[in-house]
Amino acid sequence: MATIVVHSQTSPVQDAEALRLAFKGWGADNKAIIAILGHRNVHQRQQIRKAYEELFEEDLIKRLESEISGDFERAVYRWMLDPADRDAVLINVAIRNGNKDYHVVAEIASVLSTEELLAVRRAYHNRYKRSIEEDVSAHTTGHLRQLLVGLVSSFRYEGDEINAKLAQTEANIIHESVKEKKGNNEEVIRILTTRSKTQLVATFNRYRDEHGISISKKLLDQTSDDFQKTLHTAIRCINDHKKYYEKVLRNAIKKFGTDEDGLSRVIVTRAEKDLRDIKELYYKRNSVHLEDEVSKETSGDYKKFILTLLGKHD
Amino acid sequence: MATIVVHSQTSPVQDAEALRLAFKGWGADNKAIIAILGHRNVHQRQQIRKAYEELFEEDLIKRLESEISGDFERAVYRWMLDPADRDAVLINVAIRNGNKDYHVVAEIASVLSTEELLAVRRAYHNRYKRSIEEDVSAHTTGHLRQLLVGLVSSFRYEGDEINAKLAQTEANIIHESVKEKKGNNEEVIRILTTRSKTQLVATFNRYRDEHGISISKKLLDQTSDDFQKTLHTAIRCINDHKKYYEKVLRNAIKKFGTDEDGLSRVIVTRAEKDLRDIKELYYKRNSVHLEDEVSKETSGDYKKFILTLLGKHD
């Protein structure tokens, strides 16, 4: 379930005018910006952007970028983009950041449904005049390239069928590969990038039944290079993306100085989807509320905005 | 331009009833079947199939399969399928036939536009409850797998932009790889499977300018293993698919006993698209008309049907 508190029966024109007013004078009225945009769903935000363009012949997103700054700006900018376009931007930034951020590419490609990923590939064409796989493969080599290109190019079947025998065979292949460490990465890549998620979860369950440990925990024991880290991310996102996001939030908050990029990414992309479930997982795992931790670790307008997306009442 | 002579102002219901009549008694009236289906475009054929199902509660394609046989049946069956579904079937058959037919997979993936290939991937899900890449990768290994999976998973950008510097760099990469024979296949695969077709043609042109020979001719001199053969097919299909098809037809006809599968595939899949251009190329290259060659090399109802698709007047 979502966390944001959407105000219904709003008018895009009135919202656009109120935002224009908030931009007046020296320094924007950030409180007003948050009060409006933090309580509108994706459809409403698109309508506001359209109305603003029509009324003032100016792109609202560009104006926001010039009015606000820092983490607050980055979070609002991402919030304002259409979800597929936002993911295209996140992937592009991650590719340009190199191996430090390849987990973001694997995360997006593995969490999204087949049609959602396709929409991101289309958005990437429109925005960058290139394909995702073109940029990913130009920046990587070897098995890491094969894995990342396979993940972003996948068009997975989404039926419920499970082939139990195949799950057994492929759990064994994964086991052999992980055990040897220098194992048959190509087969692991094939399995991870082509099988349906339903089938993969069956394979991961089979692995756990046989070896008494989940494949992702097993990999964690050995994680060393970028390939294995990326593999680990993909497996966790396919297996249980909410648990994965809980951990991203935990790491972002625990980190010295807080990892605002990770924090914003999860909150902005999941606020309208399943952030409430992720918040509950966070509380179960850490015995503290996510909002309280965010309150402690962030400040200013960024803090207010993130807490609004987390569903905190004003 | 297309070759088939489409009769307009036909009625799907009348066509369905005429086909039903053609199936009556012992042995179908193949002449009637050809006279109807050989002169209907893809939309009309879909309407006939629908009307037939509604009138007689029977699938027209299944009925056709039971009424006719051999090469004629296979060609009519493929003709009756929706183009994306037909390509899904062709790919599936090719995968099951193994290395003998991988060029068909490469051909379809490389000739189709981005959206057409996507439609085939969807049709494959619907028909086989798996993804193309899942089946391709389960039957192949190593560089051949990487190349084929890359081709069928590609979602190429289709803009007109050309990066001349990139074309130069990547022409060199391809040259080095081809020269060494045991060269850097991974880079060649990356280039072939991710760049836009416009960019790739610029790269191939650059190669020819520098080395006085086209990359596909150069590869042909050395062609040995399945990987290089598949690479060769992909390059030819991207560079000039009409010329490629002309050669498939030439080889199919020259072959002892004729390669009906190749002949039918090209004629059925291109009859509504650009088979007239391919016919002209055939005449230019061979100084004989394609129809005359087909007449000599085939027989019976199969021959009549293929010649009808080639635009021969009854």
UniProtKB/TrEMBL annotation, chains A, B:
One GO BP annotation of this record: response to cold
Chain sites annotated for binding Ca(2+) 1: F23, G25, G27, E67
PROSITE patterns assigned to the protein according to its UniProt record, in alphabetical order: ANNEXIN_1, ANNEXIN_2
Superkingdom to which the source organism belongs: Eukaryota
Record-listed Ca(2+) 2 binding positions: I253, K255, G257, E297
UniProt KW keywords: Annexin, Calcium, Calcium/phospholipid-binding, Metal-binding, Repeat
InterPro entries per the UniProt record, alphabetical: Annexin, Annexin_repeat, Annexin_repeat_CS, Annexin_sf, AnnexinD_plant
GO CC, alphabetical: cytoplasm; plasma membrane
SMART domains found in the cross-reference section: ANX
MF terms (GO), sorted A to Z: calcium ion binding; calcium-dependent phospholipid binding; phosphatidylserine binding
Binding locations of Ca(2+) 3: T298
Coiled-coil ranges per UniProt: none
Homology family: Belongs to the annexin family.
Domain comment quoted from the record: A pair of annexin repeats may form one binding site for calcium and phospholipid.
Protein name: Annexin
Organism expressing this protein natively: Medicago truncatula
